[in-house]
Design brief:
Elements (H helix, E strand, L loop, with lengths): L1 H20 L2 H10 L7 H23 L1 H11 L7 H23 L9 H14 L1
Helix pairs in contact: 1-5, 2-5, 3-4, 3-5
Length: 129
């Protein structure tokens, strides 16, 4: 079992680094061009919502003992969320927020957020909170 844990940790941190690096080129490209023309604004907004939701999920399952207890009672198993999952979820949220913030700083031409997506996001947020 210890061998599987070691392999899991190696693979977990490998996926963390590979996926984490993937956020950097877009931020750098936008910075160098001082422009976000051609980038999908809606994709970034939906990504931020998705990654922040995933971060809350991972943090709750990793750090909140009452959530872990309820999970174990419901599924008769310990949670499979690892610290690598938490680290990635938090980094992905920060990376996506950085990319999204560039939309409001740099040249965006005539691009705007689509009304449908903004309305859908607003409705989801209202019913979530």
């Amino acid at each position: 079992m210890k061998g599987l844990r070691i392999i899991s940790n190696i693979l977990g941190w490998s996926y963390f680094w590979c996926w984490s690096i993937s956020f950097i080129p877009q931020v750098v490209l936008n910075y160098e061009r001082k422009s976000v023309v051609g980038m999908s604004f809606e994709y970034q907004l939906l990504n931020l919502i998705g990654f922040s939701s995933y971060a809350v999920y991972c943090c709750c399952l990793q750090f909140d003992t009452s959530v872990r207890k309820r999970y174990k009672e419901a599924f008769h198993s310990a949670t499979l969320v690892t610290i690598q999952d938490v680290a990635f979820a938090l980094w992905a949220t920060v990376g996506t927020a950085a990319t999204l913030s560039q939309i409001f700083i740099y040249e965006r031409g005539t691009q705007r957020f689509g009304r449908f997506v903004l309305t859908a996001v607003l409705i989801v947020l209202i019913f979530t909170f």
